[in-house]
Design brief:
The protein is of the alpha+beta class. It contains 2 helices and 4 strands, in the order E-H-E-E-E-H.
């Protein structure tokens, strides 16, 4: 899985990059067919936004989360993506 990390109005530190990498490993444990991930971290005044686009086998999944703390925004993003990936996995099993 290739992770592209981009920051708008924020510097991507090593600790932030490591945090994103460890969180996306959780998704990879649930579903192996994730080929590419594009993550955008954005700061707007007090709100911190995290957006991600996953390229799965046969589908593209997008989610975003917003919080006052960047790490909490990333956690919310991972939770949303986890639910969507599990739903996609269940759908593909039924076919």
């Amino acid at each position: 899985m290739q992770i592209n990390l981009t920051g708008h109005h924020i510097d991507i530190t090593d600790s932030l990059k490591a945090y994103v990498d460890t969180k996306f490993e959780k998704l990879e444990r649930h579903f192996d067919h994730i080929s590419n991930v594009h993550v955008v971290l954005n700061v707007e005044k007090i709100n911190q936004k995290a957006e991600a686009t996953l390229h799965l086998k046969g589908e593209v999944v997008h989610a975003n989360a917003e919080h006052t703390d960047m790490y909490a925004a990333i956690d919310g993003l991972i939770d949303k993506l986890d639910r969507q990936v599990i739903k996609h996995k269940e759908k593909s099993k039924r076919h």
